[in-house]
Amino acid sequence: MQSQQKSLRVYVLLLIVALLFSGCAAPMAAPASAPAAASGSSESAAAEAPAAAAAAPSAPSSHRGPTPVAPSRDQRPAEPVTAGVVDDNEQWSDYLDYRGRHNYLWVNERDISERIAVQVWDQNNEPVHDATVEIFGDQQQTIFTGRTDAGGRLFFHPRALNDSQRVQTYFVTASKGFVAQRQQFSRQESRWTITLIDPPAAERTQLDLLFLVDATGSMSDEIEKLTNSIAEIASQIDGLPEQPSVRYSLVSYRDRGDAYVVKAEEFTSHLNLFQKQLSRLRADGGGDYPEALNEALHTALHDSDWTGEDAVRLVILVADAPPHLDYQERFAYDTDMIDAVGMGVKIFPVGASGLDEQGEYIFRQMAQFTGGKFVFLTYEEGSDSSSGPGTETTHDVDNYSVDTLDRLVVRLVREELAKLPQGSRQ
What we know:
Elements: H1 2-28, H2 42-48, H3 50-55, E1 82-86, H4 92-101, E2 116-122, E3 132-136, E4 142-147, E5 153-156, E6 169-176, E7 179-186, E8 191-196, E9 206-214, H5 223-238, E10 245-253, E11 262-264, H6 271-279, H7 293-302, E12 311-319, H8 333-343, E13 345-351, H9 357-370, E14 374-381, E15 384-389, E16 401-404, H10 405-418
Parallel strand pairs: 2-8, 9-10, 9-12, 12-13, 13-14
Antiparallel strand pairs: 1-14, 1-16, 2-5, 3-4, 3-6, 6-7, 10-11, 14-15
Helix pairs in contact: 5-6, 5-10, 7-8, 8-9
């Protein structure tokens, strides 16, 4: 009898243990798709998104996860700067119409309505880069001197030069090294072509890239974004597959009465040094609307150590105001844009927010005359720079393309390099 009672107690004990184990195992066997608890516990969220839990194995295993922390301002990605571009030499009739619509503006006018493209080829129909082109009148007086761009071309505007109104026949000499060719052309022709036989060609062409930046107070709302874009431009150019040999320079300017008028850094091939110089740039001063751009452009062109031969030379002007035209100065932007062609320098002005119609006109003058292009910042709402990046502008332009400023300027640089003869691109 006692043995039967003992057996019964053992059986009951085993039954209790079995019931306990089955009660513990039931919740673990619940499917992942079971409805979430009303309390919204973190375990149910983890069951619904096991991949998220696996992606962060070091996260705490508490029911309430850590509170997300918003990134600091320095950690947030910089807002992109968008910009458009127009090539007034390519859209020539549109540009002449634009000038006609704005002939009331106070500018240093140069009559460019008559334009002759001078093209220099070698015997293989390859462009001759950085050839010197001298244009003489019928009395053998020197009228104009320029250098061909990477595509072997320059523009000659007879009416823009004060002493050439009566000349109808020109004598043109193109030369590079010890190779020269002299030909006679009529003023009635819109394109002059000269061929040089076996001109010297560089194995590798230098790229001189000078950034001319308005650092007055009116630029303070955008100077950080613009300098970040310039730094990114320099980095992207330094990494181009063409692997150009690049030198960078920074010339900043303000206005009379400020801490400085023009501050020029020497060209450097060291990207890190250039970016350090750029990081120190601060916007301050100014006061009135026009700035000391005449003096700054003159300094950039005539006081910089540009590469003498076989170089692609570009000025990227970033500003939101025209030059002072009321100063009694020994230099002016219109004479310096003529000098720029003589030096083989192209100007690519970038119009920042607030650039008025006078500034736009002057910027486009410099771009067109030197063979550059006019770049302008764009916004979601064209008249409101605080509206963020977009495609709209208040400038008098049509048929323009838009990209981020860094990609756009890098594209323009690559387009210049792509014009070079095949053997000079690296």
